[in-house]
Amino acid sequence: MDYRYYEQEFQKKYARSPLLVRSPGRINVIGEHTDYNEGFVLPAAVDKEIVLAMARNDTDTIRITALDLGEEVQFEVSQADRVAEPWARYIAGVLLQFQQLSMDIGGFDCAFGGTIPLGAGMSSSAALECGVGLGMATLFDHEIEPMELVKAAQRAENEFVGVKCGIMDQFANVFSRKDHVIRLDCRDLSYHYFPAELDTHTLLLFDTQVKHSLGSSEYNVRRSECEEGVALIVRHFPETQINSLRDCTKEMLDQVSPRMPGKVGDRCTYVIEEIQRVEQACNALQTNELDRLGKLMYETHEGLSKKYEVSCAELDFLVDQTLPMKAVAGARMMGGGFGGCTINLVERSGKEDVVAAVKRSYSEQFDKEPKVYEVNIAEGTGTINAFAS
Ligand code: GLA
Questions:
Q1: What confidence tier does 346 reach under pLDDT thresholds 50, 70, 90?
Q2: What is the pTM of this model?
């Protein structure tokens, strides 16, 4: 990453030396749509990142330039709630959260850009939220605990952007460590780092290059379907302490699901099975059984596609293409769904052949090439230089 580019662009525009913050995108090995059900996830930050150059400007105005879009937004510190530009709302949302935490933030300038592909399911939004959060706290000398930053960024997205996302993306963005995946228990927020020793294998993302508009609305629908399922199970087992699908067993669900409306039973089945799969995946990682891990990834995809119904034709096609390929241990759609990437656990020695075959068949089917990213697991959000203004 050429950090100097961002420093220079900032200097050209705002004529000062900036603080530099880098903020990565993330992958998730397994554990999809489990975070808001208090289950487990297994994410990691990767070496695709946003870089923010920021400096105080000693006024009450915030000026932000999105370098990759060539757009600038300006607003008063006291009027963050009026910001309308979609990308700037992630920033304004975090500012509003900081204000609610009584953190005094004044005017500043910011220029940012980076390499996280947009709409690919790699959480560029969480990267922007947490990166700007760390930048603001640093500029205005506020101590913020990493978990507090994670939660403020998540609330910004829930309350101001309007996506009722769970905590995984912001957590992975802040807590990641190079060459490790993190198993996060989304119920009590305890976490454990697992070395990702993928010597023989590598992680490839195939980007469908589509983002179906259903994305955020259906996400919120899935969330309420899960809540509806929990409410019905609670009614059936009044003596048991149940707060979420994490507290429900398959046996409990089997008793209640015939009376669940619409797709609610299927949604709950997927989530309960997926929470168990993360545990199995962690065991497989620990014993370096990558074929077993891969098999679990395929099972996750099947569940996301058939029971949770957040996949799409392009994602299903990409996963199906890899099924007969010996060099692919596992593949599945990643993130919220309805477009974006698949994540593939691929033998290094067969990597080129897999990429060539997938590109060829996808282009024949959909008339466009999938983008391919080989990702390495990276450190979470951090500052790059000492503040030099
Ligand atoms: C999006 C959300 C996350 C998580 C995933 C699905 O990335 O932001 O909180 O729910 O979808 O696992």
A1: very high
A2: 0.96
Domain boundaries, the chain: 3-196+378-386, 201-375
Q: Residue 77 C-alpha to ligand 1 middle, in angstroms?
A: 30
At the top level of CATH, the class of 201-375 is alpha beta
Percent of the chain exceeding pLDDT 90 equals 94
- Which one of 165, 223, 304 would you pick to mutate in the ligand 1 pocket, going by the greatest count of ligand atoms within 8 A of its CB? 165
- Measured from the Cα of 41, ligand 1's closest atom is 12
What is the structure's pLDDT at 386? 53
CATH of domain 3-196+378-386: 3.30.230.10
Q: Is the pLDDT of residue 387 over 60?
A: no
Please state, as a whole number, how many other Cβ atoms lie within 10 Å of the Cβ of residue 108: 25
Q: Is the CB of 48 under 6 A from ligand 1?
A: no
Question: Is the distance from the beta carbon of residue 274 to the nearest atom of ligand 1 less than 6 Å?
Answer: no
**Average pLDDT rounded to a whole number, residues 341-351:** 97
Work out which ligand 1 atom sits closest to the CA atom of 36: 10
Which of 32, 35, 37 should be mutated for ligand 1, with most atoms under 8 A from CB?
35
